[in-house]
DNA sequence: TAAATTGCTGTAAACGATTACAAGAACGTT
DNA sequence: AACGTTCTTGTAATCGTTTACAGCAATTTA
């Protein structure tokens, strides 16, 4: 790879001059500029982002980080895609890591990102009191939370109105006549899970029903836990007539448990899932879901991050997006 | 962030000594070492990967790149996951980018990776004659191809026996009595697509059947093209009795087209898809697929890359993994 | 006891960029 | 003609590391 040195030598100027024509900042007389540009072209010069990042401070690295809990979850894939598109449009590269909902991995990758001097980080915190994230923020690193929020720290945040989504989903089930509605939740340390659960409880309460502990099961957002917990619920002496499952992967797992028991949906058991899936339409039966605008969450997070990088002092803002109940045939 | 300078000052030694205890390489007497280690701890020192990378050459950055065509495709998500796990196990970070099957984006990200001085790159080339990839390889950058191969360049490669997978899938359909088997292929420039198509044609030929052009449609690997092309095939005067779809997303699209026309699977139309899906079991009906070991492809690619980084001169190897036909109820 | 060897540590030069400052040329002003 | 500007370019410091080399003290050898 050609370096500034080599270009300078070929163009018979100093490296400072070459750097100036590259950064289009200072004045360089036309003749010199042309000579430099020719050398640049002839050597196919590409600046080293590494060297550049070492020298420049704050927001000029054109590199941002995204840490997602599970790359195999279509919700996060869509979110990543939205962020990626926004980043690419601004010529930022994305350092994408997968924490696997694992605090050690998150810590490792946060460390990597700091050590890589990224301009900023986007992530859904692993819990509402994610100390690792708080520590990174304390160093002055721009951080934007997506999907999930932090309880202690004030950050830029792009979230979805989870409470409302859950409330509507349960109300929908209630309207269909269901009274025993099972809940399969995920990790209770995360804010989205709590909001959704609150929406579930309030919707039941508004219908004059209490939420019954025996109909609630807590999992870990993974497909397998959805399958297991749905199984437990279905095998009860008096099983629920409907299931509300708090994320997409657990919903798929619940469906597997249902099919395994040869139950009919929605006659024997109705199902509503949180998060849409690109193939929800082709599931058996087409799945009723609360759709989250994941792509927009990612896109707006990147935009917020860009603004925070440009202007570190600005007060944090929260963008709240609306989910949408899509009634298909599982209810 | 504390730098070597600050640590050195606090421990009252030179930066060289600090660097030495960090790299455990040279001899440092116990007392000095202890003092340095204390300073390191007190200042919570973390080395700058950027500075380190600038100084060191070749394979010490502990950063590798992965460029995937579509992060929303579960096959690539699984592959990425396999690679990520292997990378994490060796304490490598992953720079993950999404090319969107777009040559411009791929070029952009290849440039970023070179400029970031990654230790190596893993990717499925966008076509068999992907010039951008060849150019990067020519600079000496370690490159491992996954899934898809390059026709001109010799690289390390982890691939799946696509020919065999397709051959078995079509044979399976033939065994079920189908004679008019439609094919929905993806981008014909990519090696996997060609191999799969060759498997399709050969399986038909082995049964004494020619492949008929009117039953073949070419798409772009995306869900929407699967839906459209399946629609075309289904709306023919004499439609095929079975569909073989060359990737997962197009299969999901094809399923949508089938459901839209209220056809029964497999009675009216049988379907086999290439690539498994975590929820293939819960589709309507459970989908017969050719399963690829995507996780292993990713994992082995990372291992190959590591070996190539360590030993640049070694001859390229090809690892060929076997796909597996999983007969469910769509055939 | 002087010389040679060994062991530990410090000095300084990279890596490849950016940028403050200096310097020289060209120009205008008085 | 002398001086002050302005414009363009070069010199050198810097970012945070690694590492070749030098230097010094302690130890071994003659």
Kindly describe this structure.
The structure is a homodimer of 331-residue chains. Chain A is α/β, with parallel strands linked by helices and 331 residues long. Chain A has three domains: 44 residues, 434 Repressor (Amino-terminal Domain) (Orthogonal Bundle); 127 residues, Response regulator (Rossmann fold, 3-Layer(aba) Sandwich); 130 residues, 3-Layer(aba) Sandwich (Rossmann fold), CATH 3.40.50. Chain A contains twelve helices and twelve strands. Chain A has a six-stranded parallel β-sheet with strand order 2-1-3-4-5-11, with helices on both faces. A six-stranded mixed β-sheet of chain A has the order 7-6-8-9-10-12, with helices on both faces. In chain A, helix 5 crosses helix 12, helix 8 runs parallel beside helix 9 and helix 10 crosses helix 11. At the A-B interface, helix 4, helix 5, strand 2, helix 6 and helix 11 of A face helix 4, helix 5, strand 2, helix 6 and helix 11 of B. The structure holds a DNA duplex (30 and 30 nucleotides).
Care to give the gist of this entry?
2 copies of one chain form a homodimer. Chain A is built from 12 helices and 12 strands.
What descriptive keywords fit this protein?
12 helices, homodimer, six-stranded mixed β-sheet, six-stranded parallel β-sheet, DNA-binding, 16% strand, Rossmann fold, 331 residues, 3 domains
């Amino acid at each position: 790879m050609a370096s500034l040195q080599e270009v300078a030598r070929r163009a018979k100027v100093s490296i400072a001059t070459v750097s100036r024509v590259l950064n289009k900042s200072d004045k360089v007389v036309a003749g010199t500029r042309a000579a430099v540009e020719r050398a640049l072209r002839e050597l196919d010069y590409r600046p080293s982002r590494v060297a550049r990042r070492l020298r420049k401070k704050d927001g000029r690295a054109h590199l941002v980080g995204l840490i997602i809990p599970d790359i195999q979850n279509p919700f996060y894939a869509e979110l990543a895609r939205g962020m990626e598109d926004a980043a690419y449009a601004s010529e930022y590269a994305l350092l994408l890591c997968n924490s696997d909902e694992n605090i050690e991995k998150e810590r490792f990758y946060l460390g990597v990102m700091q050590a890589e001097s990224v301009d900023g980080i986007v992530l859904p915190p692993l819990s509402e009191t994610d100390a690792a994230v708080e520590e990174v923020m304390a160093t002055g690193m721009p951080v934007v939370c997506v999907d999930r929020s932090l309880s202690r720290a004030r950050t830029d945040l792009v979230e979805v109105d989870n409470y409302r989504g859950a409330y509507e989903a349960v109300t929908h089930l209630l309207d269909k006549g269901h009274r025993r509605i099972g809940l399969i939740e995920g990790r209770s340390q995360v804010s989205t899970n709590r909001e959704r659960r609150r929406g579930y409880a309030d919707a039941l309460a508004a219908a004059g029903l209490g939420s019954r502990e025996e109909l609630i099961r807590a999992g870990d957002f993974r497909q397998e836990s959805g399958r297991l917990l749905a199984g437990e619920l279905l095998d009860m002496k008096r099983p629920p007539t409907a299931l509300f499952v708090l994320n997409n992967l657990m919903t798929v797992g619940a469906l597997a448990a249902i099919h395994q028991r040869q139950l009919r949906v929605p006659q024997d058991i109705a199902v509503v899932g949180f998060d849409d899936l690109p193939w929800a339409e082709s599931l058996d039966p087409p799945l009723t879901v609360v759709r989250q605008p994941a792509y927009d969450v990612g896109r707006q997070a990147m935009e917020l991050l860009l603004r925070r990088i440009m202007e570190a002092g600005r007060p944090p803002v929260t963008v709240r997006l609306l989910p949408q109940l899509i009634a298909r045939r599982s209810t």
